[in-house]
Amino acid sequence: MKLWLVRHAQPLVAAGICYGRLDMAADAEATAQCARSLAAQLPPRLRVASSPLQRCEQLAQALQGLRPDLIYKTDARLQEMDFGHWEGRAWQAIAETELQAWSRDFADYPVGAVGESVSRFMARVAAAFDALQAPGEHGQDTLWITHAGVIRAVDLLTSGLRHIERADQWPPHAPKYGQWHTRDL
User: Fold this and answer.
1) Phi and psi dihedrals of 87, rounded to 5?
2) What is the per-residue pLDDT for 139?
3) Would you identify the CATH topology of the domain 2-184?
4) Could you read off the pLDDT of 10-42 as tens digits, one per residue?
5) What one-character DSSP code corresponds to residue 51?
6) From which domain of life does this come (predicted)?
7) Packed helices 148-158 and 118-132: angle between N→C axes, nearest 10 degrees
8) pLDDT 10s digits, 58-77
9) Where are the domains of the chain?
């Protein structure tokens, strides 16, 4: 079984802003270009699950316009990590003491005071990942239209890591906006 992991196009947000669950549109032309590229490469009748955040929904809708043969649904588990009170703030405006607190307790610190911890985020993504291999689902290729954090979490899951303790264990790379990679499960 193959899992396609697609990152949404460039969001319409200023550089240096913390956003995860912050819902904003993506660049329309970049979204259309990504949809065209994907549509040309995807196999028929592929299952597509999308984060409900509009930057991902835009891509799912554009792809559906080009490939109505694909099977579409929205899955809230594919949303980006919730950064709590940090959402919409410039990263450099977040107190160094808050960032250090997160780094010291990377697994369990509720980011932005009320957001998700990395452990909760990983568990949410793992639930969606595990459902791919549930009876009746096994063996069917799937595409996720999602976010960099979710893709990094899947990269950890496919390497056998379900829980990480330290920030240096978090994968540093994800596909660029509007790009993708695949994982064989």
Assistant:
1) -55, 130
2) 67
3) Rossmann fold (3.40.50)
4) 999 999 999 999 999 999 999 999 999 999 999
5) -
6) Bacteria
7) 70
8) 999 999 999 999 999 999 99
9) 2-184
